[in-house]
Design brief:
14 strands; alpha/beta; single chain; five-stranded mixed β-sheet; globular; nine-stranded mixed β-sheet
């Protein structure tokens, strides 16, 4: 058993179309829960890593569902009830052109009102790792202050920080995002990003920087460690100057949303258990692939499913690059 991981951020009620089509054309939607940080927390718990998720929810049925789902997966939940704000809602559609489209209704939500005082005393200081994302840095001034306070507390206590860029362009403009992400990355022990996110953080144009350059330059911002998720091309990493590459695990893609979070959980769980960077990258790639095989952000099948036989027509390497946010 490894030490406890602490993470914080917004988790929302998730409505997913049961059939292919846009919301105006759907007859039914499935109710679920979704949030980057809680997705990672659930993935870590399933891998045997005790994890606490801290967030805010409205005193409404959506908040009740969020709390029930996350706690029901074995995560230690610190959900501060907010009687003045509603729990955020996200909707997920599978469009006829093959894209998955996610839209959010979170402006002024309870989750966006997360504040530094919501973090219990000594929680961060007693953790083995603090995990944060760029989403929470972009949600609101209070949420950003909560992340920065958590990083301050981790730094003072000698607790390493994991930072996943997880950029949401609808929440924050690129220049402001770059400033905040670079500040967080500079205080992190490891940084995760998609290749487009790495270019954003590094201030590069869309066609600048090959995979190895992105990984090494992103790692230079942090403690010498960075992982760049490449979707259908797999992932690369720069770990203490060493470059690693892993091809994507082939699966039949059903829903790519949540794959990046599962990837991060796989890496962190492996690393916390003492696995080598190569092993961590293997576990991360497999976890991300598994997340693509189900219609949920976090209800992943058993890893043995990766070894089930598939026909060539069932195989798709696109792990997490078909999402329109």
């Amino acid at each position: 058993m490894t030490g406890r991981v602490v993470t914080l951020g917004e988790t929302m009620l998730l409505l997913t179309g049961r059939d292919v089509g846009a919301v105006p054309d759907l007859e039914h939607m499935r109710v679920d829960t979704g949030g980057a940080e809680s997705n990672v927390a659930i993935g870590l718990v399933r891998a045997g890593v005790p994890t606490t998720w801290v967030g805010r929810v409205g005193t409404d049925p959506a908040g009740d569902r969020v709390t029930r789902d996350v706690r029901g997966e074995g995560v230690d939940v610190v959900a501060v009830p907010d009687p003045d704000r509603s729990t955020g809602i996200m909707m997920k559609e599978r469009l006829t052109d093959g894209r998955t489209r996610v839209t959010y209704h979170r402006r002024g939500s309870a989750g966006a009102a997360l504040r530094a005082t919501d973090l219990p005393t000594s929680l961060v200081e007693q953790a083995a790792l603090l995990h944060v994302t760029g989403i929470t840095l972009a949600l609101s001034d209070d949420a950003r202050a909560a992340v920065e306070a958590a990083i301050d507390r981790a730094d003072t206590a000698g607790v390493p920080v994991s930072f996943d860029v997880n950029h949401r362009p609808k929440l924050i403009d690129a220049d402001t995002a770059r400033e905040r992400y670079r500040a967080a990355a500079s205080r992190a022990a490891i940084v995760f990003a998609g290749d487009d996110e790495a270019r954003l953080v590094l201030g590069l144009a869309d066609d600048e920087g090959d995979d190895e350059t992105l990984a090494h330059e992103l790692a230079a911002l942090a403690g010498g460690r960075a992982v760049v998720k490449l979707g259908s091309r797999g992932a690369v990493a720069s770990i203490d100057g060493r470059f690693l590459r892993r091809v994507a695990t082939p699966v039949r893609v059903v829903d790519p949303v949540g794959a990046g979070d599962a990837f991060v959980a796989g890496w962190l769980a492996a690393s916390l258990s003492g696995a080598s960077p190569d092993e961590a990258l293997d576990r991360a790639a497999d976890a991300g692939a598994l997340a693509c095989t189900v219609e949920s952000d976090w209800r992943c099948p058993d890893p043995a499913a990766l070894h089930a036989p598939t026909s060539p027509s069932d195989v798709d390497h696109a792990v997490h690059d078909r999402v329109d946010r």
